[in-house]
Amino acid sequence: GAVVSQHPSWVICKSGTSVKIECRSLDFQATTMFWYRQFPKQSLMLMATSNEGSKATYEQGVEKDKFLINHASLTLSTLTVTSAHPEDSSFYICSARDQGRGLAFYEQYFGPGTRLTVT
Amino acid sequence: GEDVEQSLFLSVREGDSSVINCTYTDSSSTYLYWYKQEPGAGLQLLTYIFSNMDMKQDQRLTVLLNKKDKHLSLRIADTQTGDSAIYFCAESIKTGANNLFFGTGTRLTVIP
Predict the structure, then answer these.
(1) Which of A53, A84, A95, B27 is the most buried (most CB within 10 A)?
(2) Cβ contacts (< 8 Å) between B97 and chain A: which residues?
């Protein structure tokens, strides 16, 4: 149980284009999903918290107009990187909290990640 | 702000025990976690410990928490080559967002 998928696994796009990454909780409902970014040999940096049915909460320094987040259902959140540039190349990982466990338990289940390369 | 630190590298011989250490600064941590990341993959939760516990054992894994010193460790007994990966400690604190704050990660290399 508690499986999170991401699609695509990797994507190469041209500079200036937009790319959408999907994060799905497959066997549980997630009112809250998180988007992280990981640079090579570095830790995960939280970009934003995605809340079902409301606006995402962005961390300081993350451009909300560039990284569009939509959490339209209890099992799907999307991250769209708009007007991508080579410096946006990174490994993007999402996670989801299992609503069924209740708010007292803060465990997050992670997706396998999406490697974005902008040429 | 929250600061979670780990040493970057650890090498051990197959069959030996590995001990990965982590220090954190926020005393209001609720849960502390250990995640494993294999190359090109997402994070796999290995184990977690509630902040009012001192120790937790789960098969080959032993987690020790020294809350006074804000020090967390993960011991892997009988380390195998399949244990080679990056290990992240993480803490969650009682804030509205209930975020996870990750350490820098320790790359464990198991030598056959």
Answers:
(1) A95
(2) 49, 57
